[in-house]
Amino acid sequence: MSGKKLDYLGVSAFCESMAMMVQAGIHTDEAIGLLQSDHSHTGGVLEQGLAAMKTKVEEGAGLAAAMKESGIFPEYALQMVEAGESSGRLEDILFRLAAYYADQKTISEKLRSSVTYPAAMLTLIIAVLAVMLVMVLPAFTDVYNNLTGSLAASSYGYVRWAYGFCWFALILMLLLAAALVIGLLLWNSDKRKTVEAFLRKNRLCSEILESMGKFRFTSALATFLASGEMQDEAVLKSLPMTDCAPVEEKLQKCILRMQDGHSIAQAAYDEDLFEPVYGRMLLAGERSGNMEHVLNRLTKLLEENCKNLVERLVGIVDPLLSGVLMFTVGLSLLSVMLPLIGMMNAIG
Question: What is the pLDDT of residue 101?
Answer without folding.
Answer: 86
